[in-house]
């Protein structure tokens, strides 16, 4: 009666993320992995994870690249999606840019098809779709088009499963908090989100005006340790929670 959809985002965005997510999958707590087709390390992620039958894989729809020094762009040819890229051919950093610079929705759908095809070619069986930085919030009509596209592809829509755990972002840094939160929750289906990555200079090179790269790398490394710890899964069991996949979950 108590279930927890456990998801790790940004797979394929870096080697650090790939390694951390593989460790978390081995530990048994993470059951859903969202893969960025626009990331530089899709093939490496596929070698580490794609054959696993215990993990539900999703497409982490990516239309933005938030860091100053680590950038990514479209899977499509840049000339095919000009409203999605900056002068250097990368995705724009902040999705709010779309508020004043509306992208062509048909270009977004073309890019989504390209991203889904790339993940399939790499060997991933994609079951659900979620979005990186939620750019759909800033483009009128895009949420409806995304819902239509996801349904057309026969995939699970992430929007129907958000009942996020309280204080989700603090579990890795505050000892004992995860168990305290789970212990006071009643029956139901809840959602847990994470962005793990092992500490590396690769991660420390990320960052922007709002996020310090070194702090980001340290924080994501703490998340990686939390997800890989056997204590995390043991806490779920003590509190009567079972981590589940999206394809086991019930839309809310």
From TrEMBL:
Q: Which domain of life is it from?
A: Bacteria
Coiled coil regions, renumbered to chain: none
Keywords tagged on the record: Carbohydrate metabolism, Hydrolase, Magnesium, Metal-binding
**InterPro entries, alphabetically?**
Glyco_hydro/deAcase_b/a-brl, YdjC-like
Q: Which SUPFAM superfamilies match?
A: Glycoside hydrolase/deacetylase
Q: One matching Pfam family, short form?
A: YdjC
Q: Has keyword Ligase?
A: no
Q: Which cofactor does it need?
A: Mg(2+)
Query: Can you say what this protein is called?
Result: ChbG/HpnK family deacetylase
The source organism is Gordoniibacillus kamchatkensis
Organism classification: Bacteria, Bacillati, Bacillota, Bacilli, Bacillales
């Amino acid at each position: 009666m108590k279930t927890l959809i456990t998801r790790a985002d940004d797979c394929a965005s870096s080697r650090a993320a790939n390694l951390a997510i593989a460790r978390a999958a081995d530990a048994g707590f993470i059951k859903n992995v969202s893969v960025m087709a626009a990331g530089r390390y899709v093939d490496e992620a596929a070698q580490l994870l794609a054959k696993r039958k215990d993990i539900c894989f999703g497409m982490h729809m990516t239309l933005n690249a938030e860091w100053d020094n680590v950038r990514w762009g479209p899977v499509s040819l840049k000339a095919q999606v000009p409203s999605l890229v900056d002068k250097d051919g990368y995705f724009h950093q902040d999705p709010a840019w779309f508020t004043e610079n509306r992208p062509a929705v048909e270009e977004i759908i073309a890019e989504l098809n390209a991203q889904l095809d790339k993940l399939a070619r790499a060997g991933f069986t994609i079951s659900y779709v979620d979005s990186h930085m939620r750019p759909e919030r800033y483009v009128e009509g895009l949420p409806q088009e995304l819902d239509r596209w996801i349904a057309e592809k026969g995939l699970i829509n992430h929007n129907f499963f958000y009942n996020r755990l309280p204080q989700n972002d603090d579990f890795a840094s505050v000892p004992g908090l995860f168990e305290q939160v789970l212990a006071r929750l009643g029956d139901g289906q809840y959602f847990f989100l994470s962005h793990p990555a092992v500490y590396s200079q690769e991660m420390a090179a990320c960052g922007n005006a709002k996020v310090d790269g070194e702090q980001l790398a340290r924080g994501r490394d703490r998340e990686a340790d939390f997800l890989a710890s056997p204590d995390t899964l043991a806490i779920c069991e003590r509190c009567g929670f079972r981590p589940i996949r999206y394809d086991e979950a019930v839309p809310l």
